[in-house]
Amino acid sequence: MPDTGSRPVPDPRPAAAALPASPPEDGIALATARDEDADQIVKLQYLCYQSEAELYGDYSIAPLTETVAELRGILAAGGDGRSDGATVVLVARRGWEVVAAVRGRLDGDICRVGRLVTHPRLRRRGLASRLLAEIELRHPTAARFELFTGARSVDNIRLYTRRGYRETGRAVDGGIEMMFLAKPAGTPA
Ligand SMILES: CC(C)(COP(=O)(O)OP(=O)(O)OC[C@H]1O[C@@H](n2cnc3c(N)ncnc32)[C@H](O)[C@@H]1OP(=O)(O)O)[C@@H](O)C(=O)NCCC(=O)NCCS
């Protein structure tokens, strides 16, 4: 009987062992925002909404003027997706960094979605789409999801349309034409 003892047994699959590991995950996880995320979210909004501000020539839009204290107040109120009036804030995190965010607030049976942002260097990878899907999931009692964007923000409109949102109307607010979009719950994206 051969003595195999503690000697290493040669791997009969050298080719397989030499193959590179499967592609790493993007390492980006979605989570409910915490108090300590407020600073990063406000900075991310400030960075991301510059293009919108430039497009409309208005740098006083709410996402650019919100303070960390205001956002901390929203986070402290702690929406759970079922309580009327409280806001759920979701972030996409890579390690310590908040790279994308979105909010949803239940208003009766309507979930109002807003402040969707993705860091410029991580765009066009489906992050905003993931966050939209997640904020919808977090509001299981909502019959309908509503959001708005500037009527000239064609990229945003295309993204929302792809996710099942449809235009419901337009209105001029502070000289900017806004487009309102909605999606009934359960609409396939
Ligand atoms: C709007 C915004 C949040 C989109 O973020 P994003 O993470 O790039 O969005 P997504 O990746 O989900 O989708 C964007 C596009 O990338 C495409 N995409 C998604 N995954 C992709 C992938 N793996 N490879 C290539 N393209 C991809 C999507 O199909 C979509 O294409 P389309 O524009 O032709 O429809 C981001 O551009 C932003 O922060 N803008 C400034 C703030 C703003 O205007 N927010 C909205 C206010 S209403």
UniProtKB/TrEMBL annotation:
<feature type="region of interest" description="Disordered">
    <location>
        <begin position="1"/>
        <end position="26"/>
    </location>
</feature>
<dbReference type="GO" id="GO:0016747">
    <property type="term" value="F:acyltransferase activity, transferring groups other than amino-acyl groups"/>
</dbReference>
<dbReference type="InterPro" id="IPR016181">
    <property type="entry name" value="Acyl_CoA_acyltransferase"/>
</dbReference>
<keyword id="KW-0808">Transferase</keyword>
<protein>
    <submittedName>
        <fullName>Acetyltransferase</fullName>
    </submittedName>
</protein>
<dbReference type="InterPro" id="IPR000182">
    <property type="entry name" value="GNAT_dom"/>
</dbReference>
<dbReference type="Pfam" id="PF13508">
    <property type="entry name" value="Acetyltransf_7"/>
</dbReference>
<feature type="domain" description="N-acetyltransferase">
    <location>
        <begin position="28"/>
        <end position="186"/>
    </location>
</feature>
